[in-house]
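#structure-requests
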Amino acid sequence: MSRDARWKALLELLVERGRLEVEEAAAELAVSAATIRRDFDQLAEQQMLVRTRGGAVVHGVSYELPLRYKTARHASEKQRIAKAVADLVAPGEAVGLTGGTTTTEVARALAVRSDLASGSPALTVVTNALNIANELAVRPQFKIVVTGGVARAQSYELIGPLADGVLSQITIDVAVLGVVSFDVTHGAAAHDEAEAAINRLLCERAERVVVAADSSKLGRRAFARICAADAVDTLVTDTAAGPETVQRFEEAGIQVIAV
């Protein structure tokens, strides 16, 4: 296992459990305790975790794993969700994509659709995510609009009043939200309030709003609300979503597509 792969795995385990012991992590990753100690020390230098005697704990009270360290957790679910979301977009439409691992997969699913291989434009994509803009910019048939703003290192998303200025001047057909949590009572949410504000404005400029979220994000709360549940038209999730959870969203008037 490469160092980058180990670091990604260690950080995901740490976010999930809150605390990791050296021996525990070594057994999980099938590497030596000395290797884990060295990894913990190097990650602590980058302020990605806090070293403790014999292990490590998450850095800070509220912790968000940077996008570059998010790996294949729920990867197959996200890919299925992404394809289903991409299928909801019609040729020629303007689609807004927020940042995140699932929306990045949506961008990739749109890029390989045969009916979007040509057009003038085949699709207009509005995004505040630098990584998504970078991936789609090589598609000449796509018109890419980047919001502007200040880059947020955790998610590669542009935030702030410069992004507000662009979004206030446009309208889009569909906004696709990547979220940290989505709940009928508390709505869709993100970790960061500035990121949530941009995502909220994207929703307000859209004719319809789609939340793309794997089942692990449903029924949860996060710090910064993006929008209320009644602002969402469609939820695309995976089949692990419980029937009671699905029913609550449907009773709130949200179309649920489980794939």
